[in-house]
Amino acid sequence: MRICRICNNSERLDTFKVKEMMFGLGESFDYFKCPVCGCLQLAEIPADMSKYYPSDYYSFNMKVPEPGPMRAWLRKKRDAYAIRQLGIIGGLLNWIFPDPLLSLYAGLSPETRILDAGCGTGSLLWRLREAGLPNTAGIDPYNTQEIRYGNGLVIAKRQLNEASGEWDLITWHHSFEHIADPLGELRKANELLSDNGKCIVRLPVVDSLAWEQYGTDWVQIDAPRHIFLHSRKSLGIVAEKNGLEITSIDYDSTAFQFWGSEQYVKGIPLTSDRSYLSNHSKSVFTSRDIRSFEKRARELNRTGEGDQAVIFMMKKSYGRK
Ligand SMILES: [Zn+2]
Predict the structure, then answer these.
(1) Whole-number pLDDT of residue 60
(2) What is the per-residue DSSP string for 108-172?
(3) 250 to each of 17, 127, 215, how far by Cα in Å?
(4) How many angstroms separate the CA atoms of 108 and 84, rounded?
(5) Residue 159 CA: distances (Å) to CA of 151, 163, 184
(6) Ligand 1 (single-atom ion) residues, CB below 5 Å
(7) What is the 253 CA–ligand 1 centroid distance (Å)?
(8) Three-state secondary structure call for residue 191
(9) Among 48, 157, 182, 214, which is most exposed with the fewest C-beta within 10 angstroms?
């Protein structure tokens, strides 16, 4: 009997067949959706998941940025301003070329201990360190080996349940949906978190217009790599069961929810030559289509219907004001 792994409900679970479409491998996977907590989940986790993370999987190839020295210097100035409001040049650059992702780190002090779970090669952590947050570390069980950078950043090859130490901020940037045991993950996070520490989970959410509109062609199901497509309610249950609570939610969905899902409707895999990801000019979209998708994404983020959320959590006793 199938059972929701988040809320234990076993009734009225709707089943869906979802195709692997990142690489177009031709395999289909069963997912079911729980009517109680709203979570869409992979029915059976393949014994060998590594075959779905081939060596050209995108997060393994995210090179730590090595632009020319001038660009690297300018970016460091911009990032330092975005995080610590330091420097006139950085302030100007941040005003002209803002990076919304850095707003998550705005106001943090250099003492803040940050652990990023499922960070791939750690390009974001590398930038944070360059911008004046030296107490940063990353882990990713799918990396082939430990990575050590010249600026002191270490990316360990391990899962969160093998991590140690005390951390003020634990983040998952589009890695939480890949984890087979989300309850165990947040249980461990609570243990590792300092008393007034925070968690930030960036992930695709199923209570979104993209799921309503595209169903099994919704690009962010990403079968079978995304094991859980959470709703706000199901993630709230995972937090609650582990002594954490959601303190706020933002949305950062993009045009990807539209062009990616439209491609899946047409049978175009994400990494195919005809994909917008590989080649804008060979894709089925005009630049006007993309601008319209971007505009719709911004509207959905405002109304809370975008397909990517940024969920902030704290320990229960500290989150309550
Ligand atoms: Zn459920």
Answers:
(1) 55
(2) --TT--EEEET-TT-HHHHHHHHTT--SEEEE-TTSSS-EE-TTS-EEES--GGG--S-EEEEEE
(3) 30, 23, 23
(4) 7
(5) 23, 7, 11
(6) 4, 6-7, 9, 34, 36-37
(7) 24
(8) helix
(9) 48
Q: Cα 117 to chain center, whole Å?
A: 10
Judge contact between 118 and 175, C-beta under 8 A.
yes
Measured in Å, residue 38 CA sits from the centre of ligand 1 at: 6
Phi-psi region of 51 (alpha: psi -120 to 50; beta: other; left: phi over 0): alpha
- The DSSP string of 160-181 is GGG--S-EEEEEEES-GGG-S-
Query: What's the maximum distance between 2 C-alpha atoms anywhere in the chain?
Result: 62
Condensed to tens digits (0 to 9), the pLDDT of residues 85-122 reads 888 888 888 888 888 888 899 889 999 999 999 999 89
* Averaged pLDDT, 241-260: 97
Contacts with 214 (C-beta within 8 Å, 6 or more apart), sequence order: 261, 264, 265
Question: How is residue 7 annotated by DSSP?
Answer: T
Task: Report the alpha-carbon angle 40-178-302, nearest 5.
Answer: 65
Q: How far is the CA of 213 from the centre of ligand 1 (A)?
A: 22
Q: Give bridge partners of residue 116 from the DSSP assignment.
A: 138, 171
Q: 32-36, 53-57, 225-229: which has the minimum mean pLDDT?
A: 53-57
Residue corresponding to tokens 């950078």: 149
Q: Tell me how far apart the alpha carbons of residues 25 and 319 are, in angstroms, rounded to a whole number.
A: 44
Q: Under a CB-based contact definition with an 8 Å cutoff, are residues 87 and 81 in contact?
A: yes
Judged against a pLDDT cut of 80, whether residue 81 lies above it is answered with yes
